[in-house]
Amino acid sequence: MSSLSLTLRDSSTMLRRNLLHARRYPSLTLNLLFTPVVLLLLFVYIFGDVMSAGMGGGDRAAYIAYVVPGILLMTIGGTVVGTAVSVSNDMTEGIIARFRTMAIHRGSVLIGHVIGSVLQSIASVVLVGAVAVAIGFRSTDATVLEWLAAFGLMALVALALTWIAVGMGMISPNAEAASNNALPLIVLPLISSAFVPVDSMPGWFQPVAEYQPFTPAIETLRGLLLGTEIGHNGWLAVAWCLGLTVLGYFWSKAAFNRDPK
Residue 215: what are its φ and ψ, rounded to 5°? Predict the structure, then answer.
């Protein structure tokens, strides 16, 4: 078999392994899904009228349309925390040491985790999106091309955050540390434009919200789903995703190839 065939075979095996783990132990995924769903319901039904009034006097439906794109990307950030925990478990429980002694493509272990995480992230987005539609979210102004671009953006964000989460899992001594290390992937959307516009924040805080990866990604997704202007946010979102993907890939690869102590 060629090197490419071996890589594909071993990567598909590792992908099946990770999907089986997710199916047999769904509690972690469900717990991570719980947070974005609760935040969605909280901000829509408890804070929705107040937030929409503070953003120009719109109704609750307008605020649902505003907040859902941020919640969808927060869902991806929460899902990949489970990837960091899973990778850390593999590193600390000895299975990686055994994989090192087997005649398999070394990169297939990481590829299996990454592809499995991206698929879980997309499934999680679909589930949270279904909840959003059930409570009134509508995207009537988006064209088919914009819908495809929106899904492509979410897949790209999932890929970038997954590689970062894999690196975090690699360097964590245990599952608890991996979960804590990956916490910024959940916190950063909270201090972005997910819930309120950046220009409504205090002046000293606006750079924190603006110059981070989630804000341009959220603004781009919001523009695609609602048919509004995207401006330069599209290029910034893609640049952030590509940069984080490259950084996470080389970080994870270096940590995986490091000789165990």
Answer: -60, -50
